[in-house]
Amino acid sequence: MTKPISPLLKPENRKKFIAQAMKSMSERQEEVIEKADKIIGDIVIFEESVHQKFVSYVGSH
Predict the structure, then answer these.
(1) pTM (whole model) above 0.70
(2) Cβ of 46: how many Cβ atoms within 10 Å?
């Protein structure tokens, strides 16, 4: 007896599966960016703050 091939391994299904996976990742990425924007607030101020903290940390060691 042979074992059936997974539908994901069939060439005709791979393209569709990859497209769905890419779309899902893009949607998830957008959700995460939106949440981060809400948490961080103004990204420019956040980046400047982190940069200043990094410079002061590196300069003190």
Answers:
(1) no
(2) 14
